[in-house]
Amino acid sequence: MDDLTVKAASSAAVYKASPELQHDVEQFLYLEAALIDEHHFREWLDLLAEDVTYTLDTNTLAQVRDRRHGIAPPTTYIFHENKYTLERRVARLETGMAWAEEPQSRTRHFITNVRITGEMGDEITLFCNYAVHRAAKARDHHTFYGTRQDILRRNDGGWLVVRRALELDEFVLMTANISIFL
Fold first, then answer.
1. Which residues are 158's β-sheet partners?
2. How far is residue 99's CA from residue 118's CA, in Å, rounded to a whole number?
3. Total domains in the fold of the chain
4. Which of 35, 95, 151, 171 could bridge to 163 as Cys pair (CB 3.0-4.6 Å)?
5. In a domain, 3, yes or no
């Protein structure tokens, strides 16, 4: 599947997914969220394709002169990862030497407004909204809200994440780090 299309397509795209496909995809997303929340990171990695890209973009307060043409201010990556770098993050968490995660954060992932926007061959594109609450230490609580675009690929009766492009709603990170998986 080509690189993801213009973000405006997320709300304008009209695609009629079957109720079975919608249910199957939502159950996959809920399972994935539960694996992360329960710290089953190795099992979560098994749900990622070998060619996965996992990105989080900044948001910007810059003004846009002409919204009619979809011109958006430039963004930069907070992170841009692949399967290898995600595996390294998990391995680091397993050592107990990831100081931002001592004690380990408790997270709750909420996935909502799942909209399947296209299907090409064995891959689908979807948009959804997310909220991730993180509780670490006595006063380190933060909730991340945003939207994301995923590409999933069918694999042996299940799904693999091929691409996840996350965008936060906040313009300035109010947390000291993002050491968790969003």
1. 155
2. 41
3. 1
4. 151
5. no
Give a yes or no: residue 4 inside a domain: no
CA 135 – CA 115 distance, rounded (Å): 29
Say how far apart CA 132 and CA 181 lie, in whole Å. 9
Domain that holds residue 162: 9-168
Q: What is the pLDDT of residues 130-175, one digit of tens each?
A: 999 999 877 778 899 999 999 999 999 899 999 999 998 887 777 7
Report percent pLDDT > 90 for the chain: 62
| pTM of the complete model | 0.85
Radius of gyration of the chain (CA): 17
Name residue 148's amino acid.
R
- Going by pLDDT thresholds of 50, 70 and 90, the confidence category of residue 104 is confident
Calculate the CA dihedral of residues 49, 161, 58, 15 and round it to 10 degrees: 140
For position 164, which CATH number holds? 3.10.450.50
